[in-house]
Amino acid sequence: MNARGLRVISAVVLCAIFAVGLFAGTVSPYPYAKQFRERPNAAPSSTHLLGTDSLGRDLFARLIYGTRVSLLLAPAAALVAALLAGILGGFAGLVGGWCEKSILAATDLSMALPLLFVLLALRALLPLDLSPVLSVISTFTLLGLLGWPSSLRVVLAATKGLRNSDFLLLARATGCSRWRMIVNHLLPNLRPVLFAQFWISIPVFVLAEATLSMLGLGVIEPLPSWGNLLRGLEDISAVSANPWRLAPLVLLILVVICFQMILPAKEETA
Amino acid sequence: MPSPLKSLTLTTLLALALPVRAQTGGELHFCLHGEPKTFNPILVDDEASEHVRYLTGGVLVRLNRQTQELEPSLATSWNVSRDRRTITFHLRKGIHFSDGTPFRSEDVAYTMRLLMDPETHSPTGDAFRSGEGTIQVQTPTPDVAAITFPAPIAGLERLFDQVAILSARSPKREMAVLGPFYVADYKAGSHVLLHKNPNYWRHDTQGRALPYVGSIRLDIQRNRDIELLRFRRGELQLINRLDAEQFERLQRENPAVTRNAGTGLDAEELWFNQTPTAPLSASKKAWFGMKQFRKAISMAINRGDLCRIVYAGFAKPAYGPVSPSNHFWFNAALEDPKYDPQGALRLLAQAGFRLENDILQDRAGNRVEFTVVTNSGNGAREKIATMIQQDLSEVGIKVNVVTLDFPSLIERITRTFDYDACVLGLVNTDLDPNGQMNVWLSSSENHQWNPSQKTPATAWEAEIDKLMREQASAPTEKERKAKFDRVQQIASEQQPFIYLINKDVLVAVSPSVVGAAPVVLEPWGFWNADTLRLGPAPELGVQK
Asked: In angstroms, rounded to a whole number, what is the distance separating the alpha carbons of residues B326 and B155?
């Protein structure tokens, strides 16, 4: 099978997973928070397709709802990060001089700060009475707002390559404004780079949310996300006794692989 | 007056219980869950150092962890004066420290002066500070020591269970000990090696010197999963305080190694923030201050489910501040904490709340909704909070659960008071109610629901203050018990803390260890370390 075929299959798989997440309310047999207390840690059965967790909640229902949370908000966070990187990186690359230096200094500072501790501090500053939905949105917004520096360096390098290109020289010679140059000439040429950064960021943010949830900082209970579902894997021997708990991990791996597969190859982006 | 026969009887029983094939010598191997901060028994303030002190320190009287009674140790007998200020010990004769220096009453005097010296900053000494002034220690003979405190101290004799006697003349200072073992080697971050004290005073009924084992190796291991793995490999012979999930798994693999000592002293509890200066809405302050509201919440929580699901059945619903395992101080007349959501709704209706479309509202029409905080990384507490969330949704209350890292949580519950309700655990190592003084006095910083009050905010808190002070100076244990029973009764009626569960004390002991009898009191699995011994063909751990 060639690369294009794999890309199509990956896209179909991703679309299917997105669709299931989007229509979680219809697909799911139970509410995600419902505790079947007489059946904690139940094995998969016709009643509970993936069994239940330690509180007796249906794992299949939680996986579907968790998919919705993680897969809908990770692209949104990736979009925020890619846009910030595109605007700041494009501007710095085009203008150069002190502007480039200050944006690069801000980038270096952001990269030097340990992301986890920054998120931890910001999360602690948020009010306690956030609803689970708002907690999800705030978590991914924070990820988006803090996730741009690494993409910015890639965008900056690409912009610097374009800065002295003939078409930009021509635009400048004809009196094109700086804003128009960015919007009409630079951004269209940066699109493949931004597109790649966007796709790369999605699995990164899914994994970041998983890490935050493992630390109790991500999505608030009882709302499920892949992250807090993966917390069930903390105890390896418990997983060996209940292997169906691996389902969220399998799904996460599948999604990350699919995202990597649908990324355009280097020669195609060039 | 306690009788020396008690300890003799116990020794005899233990000796009879030992199988014939058990032998002396060998090395017992288990873990400390942190680095011991000190080997000076006077300065002990952490669990690891406390365990080393228990194994090495000789004390005048010892609290038998199984019977919960005081027994003679270095002192053969003692008397407490009627005013509870003076205690006179009659010391055992012919005893020597591990380095060979003789034990005399001047060692008791030296230890007590050091313990009470403000410059020493001894946490153990704090328990003896009952009033202004200095202590007087008289040593009329080498085997009599009389200690007089400036003010009466309740449960005075029990406090000496924590006082390891130091040698006044040994060049080895605090490393010369009177307990069953002495510290032979210590490597920071790795292990503490204890060797048998050749001068230990106890002998079994056949006249053999105790302890039976030749040495104890205490590995410093913070990771409980690795500890369990090493036990299963046979590298360790004992694990103290397993969590319920690990215990259940181990029980499935090999029930012979698991020991449930019974309901422990520690409790998990929920409380509402009643601090007047807290940045909460007026409606929340009104709900949290209402006795009926707190009682209704307590009734709506299914403690049986918490025990069964969160602790795999290895916990019991909590009645109040004292666990039923605290034989003397538990108030058996307290009401059973019943799960009764309908009763909770009736109580809420009496207090002016109403349930409309499955949503509980107060008199002013505000939806009853609050946030429960707990520390992140504690799976059991997170599960408790999530289960409370579902239980309270049955009575129309919306609960948000937020987990915070521990420093952030402590900041909120002790400084900013920016929280609604909190689920946390109360560690209780002391049987005596004086150990809970810092929680119950309204002026205390640990009076969590409304700390550091200048004057008691409510009549019932004023009554608790009075009772706690009175019990601390009551002349007899019976009178103290009556007053503390009333404190428990008030706590049950007012529910400032909604006690949820008392966890069982779960221990793993290799079949190679003979004589192990884990108990609910610290140090749980090795309280009788001097009479433990190893079988000749150790079948260590679970996996051979």
From this structure: 15
Residue A81 in tokens: 């990060």
B225 touches chain A (CB under 8 A): yes
Question: For B416-480, what is the HEC assignment?
Answer: HCCCCEEEEEECCCCCCHHHHHHHHCCCCCCCCCCCCCCCCCCHHHHHHHHHHHHHHHCCCHHHH
Say yes or no: B408 contacts chain A, CB-CB below 8 A: yes
**Chain B residues touching residue A132 (CB < 8 angstroms):** 400
Q: How far away is chain A from the Cα of B367, in angstroms, using its nearest Cα?
A: 13
Nearest to A217 among B249, B376, B379 (CB): B376
Closest Cβ opposite residue B373 in set A55, A128, A235: A128
**pLDDT(B543) > 60:** no
Percentages (nearest 5) of helix, strand, coil residues in chain A? 75, 0, 25
The mean pLDDT value for A222-246 works out to 78
Does residue A256 register a pLDDT over 90?
Answer: no
Number of Cβ atoms within 10 Å of the Cβ of B334:
18
List pLDDT tens digits, range B458-493. Answer: 999 999 999 998 988 788 889 999 999 999 999 999
Q: B243 — contact with chain A (CB < 8 Å)?
A: no
Q: How many other C-beta atoms lie within 10 A of the C-beta of residue B134?
A: 12
Per-residue pLDDT tens for A44-64?
999 999 999 889 999 999 999
- Among B245, B358, B390, B409, which would you mutate to test the A interface (most chain A Cβ atoms within 10 Å of its Cβ)? B390
**Tokens 């002295």, residue located:** A164
Please give the ipTM for the structure prediction.
Answer: 0.75
Residues B120/B42, Cβ–Cβ less than 8 Å: yes
CB-based contact A76:A140 (threshold 8 Å): yes
The residue type of B119 is: E
For B91-102, the pLDDT digits (tens) are: 999 999 999 999
The answer to whether residues B377 and A216 touch, using CB atoms and an 8 Å cutoff, is yes
B404 touches chain A (CB under 8 A): yes
Across the interface, whether the CB atoms of A222 and B389 are under 8 A apart is answered yes
Residue in B525, B526, B508 with CA at minimum distance from that of residue B212 = B526
**Are B420 and A129 within 8 A, CB to CB?**
yes
